[in-house]
Design a protein that fits this description.
The chain has about 160 residues and is α+β, with helices and mostly antiparallel strands. The protein has a domain of about 110 residues: Beta-Lactamase. The protein is about 40% helix and about 15% strand. The protein has a four-stranded antiparallel sheet with strand order 2-1-4-3. It starts with a helix and ends with a strand.
């Protein structure tokens, strides 16, 4: 055999061995078992009547008051259960890019009925990079579902500060 052919065969064998070792790696400690069948469906909060504009604006006012106390210039979005914008505020001096991010966080929290922190943990702590392939997911904390009487009425998303 020629030297280039032997080199190619050795390289292929090494890649095969490395891929087998990678495939056999264990999930990180504490990672959920993706093959387990749960007793009940997680994040199955039923949908309720959408949050009203008045209530959404009161949440924004509360978030702005808290941000003012901390000296943070934030963008705050409130959406209905479908992720459609109900109200939005950008504080003076807030990062312009964070406006769209706050809306994305709120939309993801509403549509997936879970905090965006759950996606962040899945990617960062457990290496579940497949989560990033789901439609309209943002894997960054700051999106929180709004639950009233056990029903999802919308979500709030904040961006421009710190997690």
């Amino acid at each position: 055999m020629t030297s280039p052919m032997l080199t190619a065969m050795a390289l292929a064998a090494g890649l095969l061995a490395a891929s087998n070792a990678y495939a056999q790696q264990q999930a990180p400690a504490g990672a959920p078992d993706l093959n387990a069948v749960p007793d009940k469906m997680p994040f199955a909060t039923p949908y309720g009547a959408p949050i009203t504009m008045e209530r959404a604006q009161s949440l924004v006012r509360a978030a702005v008051a808290e941000a003012d106390k901390r000296g943070w210039a934030m963008n705050i979005a409130v959406v209905d259960p479908n992720g459609d914008l109900v109200t939005f505020a950008r504080m003076d001096g807030a990062l312009l890019a964070a406006g769209a991010i706050s809306q994305h966080k709120a939309r993801t929290a509403a549509r997936y009925r879970r905090p965006t922190h759950a996606f962040e943990d899945g990617v960062q702590k457990f290496g579940f990079s497949y989560l990033l392939t789901l439609d309209d997911v943002i894997a960054v904390r700051g999106g929180i579902p709004l639950i009233e009487d056990g029903k999802l009425i919308g979500a709030i998303g904040c961006s421009g500060g710190t997690g």
